[in-house]
Amino acid sequence: MAVTSDTKLAAEAPALTGGDWLRRIGRSVEAVFIPAMAIVASALLFSLLLIILGKSPQEFYELLWRGGFGTSFSWQNTLVRATPLIFTALCVAVPARLGMVIIGGEGAFVLGGFCAAAIAVPLVDWASPWIVMPLMIVAAVVSGAVWIGFVGVLRYYRGVNETIASLLMYYIAVSIMNFFVEGPLRDLTNPNKPSTKPIGDANMVGDIPGTEVHWGLIVGIVLAIALWVLMNRTKFGFAARITGGNIRAARAQGLPVGRLIVISCAIAGACAGLAGYFEVAAIQGRANASIAAGYGFTGILVAFLAKQNPLAIIPVSIFLGGIAAAGGLIQRRMGMPDATVQVLQGLMFVLLLVSETFYGRFRIFGGKGGGR
Amino acid sequence: MNGESGLDVVLLAMFAGAIRVSTPFLFVSLGECLTEKSGRINLGLEGTLVFGAMTGYAVSYLSGSPWLGVLAAGVAGSLFGAIHGYVCKLPRVNDVAIGIAMMLFGTGLAFFLGKPFVQPVAPHLPSLPLGWWSSNHSIRSALDINPLFFVGAALAVLLWWAFKNTRYGLIVRMTGDSAPAALAMGYSVNWVRFIATTIGGFSAGVGGAFLSLYYPGQWSEGLSSGQGLMAVALVIFARWNPLACFAAALLFGAAGALGPALQSVGITQGYYFFNAAPYVLTLFIMIVSTSPKRSLRGAPAELSITK
After folding, report:
1. Quick check: is B44 in a domain?
2. Domain harbouring B214, CATH code
3. Which residue from A minimizes the CA distance to B225?
4. What's the number of domains chain B is made of?
5. pLDDT digits (tens, 9 = 90+) for B70-94
6. B296 pLDDT more than 80
7. Per the CB < 8 Å rule, is B87 touching A163?
């Protein structure tokens, strides 16, 4: 009798850990499967909209593939558009670990780009790129960090809602840039569009050899990996996640909650500011209204699709960058408005959030099934 | 200038501007006030506003009747509100995040469907010439007031009265302050919030129609400059009191009218700084009116954003 019960126990023990392991795999599969289903569902709904409007969904998705990922040219276009999304999504994902929803990354983006240009313009004629380029980066990073860091200060010390505050500050940032670009810093030799003077070819960021993709992509990927390490593998990240989980518990543990919040916001703002730097120094060559192209807002969607995980942000940015890259082709070939991509993105965002309700509902992923 | 001083002109222009600019604020903030009183926040009203503006303009253009446009905008807005209200009652769905998503989706869809209506000119809403008694041109134009402004003012009083004195007002307030209490009284919390969000969406849609059909009176992609979002801050500032919403909307309207009013007398220096005035004012008001130590006076206890 004793022998059989022993063998039974011995047989049970590995089975138990096996189940645990399976459940963990199930969770990760679930975390990919559910957002993927949300994307498929939004693609289907969008097809329905296209059919109602008398357009061909098949043509749409073919063009989407060709314009985004079909050729090496479209891949390069995709990667260029994915680059700012990596940074702006990090601007959402880092504070999200502390339970904050910051949607004003576009403000830090615009301000970072503007400050980088503003500091370069008076130096262009006489200073070497070895001085100008680092100064531009510092200006962009610091202005972005201060901008979103201030949102964190308001959140912690005044209890001001960070979502609304950061969006209001986006409008203020755009006003600041417009004021200078149309006034004191306007390049009077350029009558078409109010802009600052060009930052000079010598101060532009170059391309990765053999491609037309600028170095910002590499910086973005490295930064995403670094922030993943920071948030998941360091004491700082652990403390930040505790704060996000339960701020009272974090305070009771003696964690410096205020400092954690402000520093995380400043890191987030620095990311967005850096994206603005690359937009000016690698794409536009000067600051004007076209740097406010909405990368900050698309970044919110990227961060949510990536479930606020810095590593997952890289592929998701490339995915959404591809959709954006195909936008022009779709617009020309199918005669669709330029907001087409925005509708598809909006639909994805809504359905993605709706899909959150399905977590833990599927037995196959080790969930309890049914209800919450 | 009939010997008027520049200050008079600016003040008159600001008065007229405050009434014009405040009307969309008023409608959106009353809608948001109702939604928040029921214990839920709808950040997507910015999208609702833009979509309402597009629908109102399109229907007015196609049917020739601007009032039909206003109605259509309201219906479209309530549809957006209904989507928000329905989705939020699913478990694990965050109302703030859904609001952001609906904001992006609503503006995107409005730009997408509204593309053919950027060029055509739709019939505008008529205004009431309340300045008929004066021979002064600037007074007459300042007192050309749109009837929707008075509708909004009446709505503010009605909401204020209804919250205080009616059964429905009590149900909404109870749901917002304590879901378990509402449940114990036999009311469905989700249903009350769904209805409140839907009606709130209607109001925001009407606010959008005012933008496209009266002032600025044109449908374009740059029509809204965040009024839908500022209305959320405005409701917090007004401490969830519809009458205070009315006053706050006028204040925001005056701040928004500052830039154009100064421009009308030739002060263009710093135009963009004055343009930022409403945002700076909103931020400032939020900073001084909140506190990390206690929850806000008058705040519905179930509201996620003040917890």
Report:
1. yes
2. 1.10.3470
3. A171
4. 1
5. 999 999 999 999 999 999 989 888 8
6. no
7. no
